[in-house]
Amino acid sequence: MELWVTEMQTPALGITCKVRRTLVEEQTDYQHMAIVETEQFGRMLLLDGMVQTTEVDEFVYHEMIVHVALNTHPNPKRVAVIGGGDGGTIREVLKHPGVEKAVLMEIDRRVVEASREFLPSISGALDDPRVEIRIGDGFGHIRSAENEYDVVLIDSTEPVGAGGAATGLFSPEFYASVGRALKADGIMVAQTESPFLNQELIRRTQAGIRATFPITRLYLASIPTYPSGLWSFTLGSKVYDPLAVDPANIRQLPTRYYTPHVHHAAFQLPRFVEELVQSAAAVGGAV
Amino acid sequence: MELWVTEMQTPALGITCKVRRTLVEEQTDYQHMAIVETEQFGRMLLLDGMVQTTEVDEFVYHEMIVHVALNTHPNPKRVAVIGGGDGGTIREVLKHPGVEKAVLMEIDRRVVEASREFLPSISGALDDPRVEIRIGDGFGHIRSAENEYDVVLIDSTEPVGAGGAATGLFSPEFYASVGRALKADGIMVAQTESPFLNQELIRRTQAGIRATFPITRLYLASIPTYPSGLWSFTLGSKVYDPLAVDPANIRQLPTRYYTPHVHHAAFQLPRFVEELVQSAAAVGGAV
Description:
Chain A contains 9 helices and 12 strands. With 287 residues, chain A is of the alpha/beta class. The interface between A and B is large, with 41 and 42 residues.
């Protein structure tokens, strides 16, 4: 018997991977969760049928959601990660020696537990003494924080699907709360889906983040198991501009995707993405 | 009934697209050819079951195989395209007003005919008076040319599959022939597959191109329907360095992906790709 796992990335597009075995599959309080061992990408975490991370290509997403902001901020000490229960984002945050505290706010305890058991190369850093894990609603946690973090990373699931746990994490109200949770020179980054397939979401989040953050910039990375293979992140900053960072001053870090030059190249957008961002700016300006 | 077309990108990885109808499907003298109308990507050309181009994302590949070289060469007049029977590469070449002659060398007459009939937005420029279409073996044509072209673009199928028509187009002998077909300041570009999935091929073509061209550089673009979504091109140049081009001097062209800044950003490689290229350099040096 051959087993294949297929994610319908859109109603008319799917990715299918050969599966050696299923390590865990269950309905949690929030979503359907599975970890399978694929031939192509190693172990793969799926939530509500959507690929979240794989052992083979997770490094791209996790390095790129973290290092751009943490190398733009001159001295990040307190970092919050919203979502990201697999621990990969935390692992990259802790590569920065100045970080004193990394708070993980994950709604689904089972994602953390299963990642600890079956994805050790991704979740390993969760045991670091600098890490605090808060299981619960990230929006609520952030709303109660004020002037507390240097960097907030929004490592959420997609704002869709049956669970829809992450929908609130893409709203202007949420970005305003993140703004208050950040210190006066704080930076946020959110994963904002594919510029080929999710243009409306990118337009909306651009406008929402821009309403709170004077410096709002989209950047890109290539992630094979994510729809279209091209993924966007949106950085919102109160003071520091990621484009003003001198590559020569960027910390040397053990990475496989991010480099000081990739830091800058990721902001050089294909023309259709540039135009997408500009159209969002116009909408944002009218708010 | 629902129809889906699935490309097995590797033995353990597939992409599947919902199909409205099949426009053409036949066995040509060289390969299995199909054009189907997909919901996600518009019309799609498949050769031996592998996606070659789609109406929705073809602009990335065709712009990026052409404009980097044609904007690096200060005055490209004669351009050869090997493969590329769909006409998309020729269309982009002709956007450069200085081009006097664009020669298409395609082995399979049926690809040109079917593209003319069913992919007019891609093939339309084939009727331009500057275009000469030579049906036949591209390697043979190139071998008989000497000091003739400013730019040669190798827009081939993958060097695999039952047909394997393109295998020779990835050999060091072929790149040496391209070197002779080019003028003393000529430039070539070859599509060289995915850095996530085809590392051995990239290592081999790097070494092969480097043996003939003193300036050999890999660059990347994001193509949703190609395996992993991240695609590499390798540029070989006798004199001009693509990195030395001043963005301010790059011709303004009607493009949707390529920009003067993308020109440079495409060469800023993720660390694992940088290391892949460096390992190839070491091999090449030992030849």
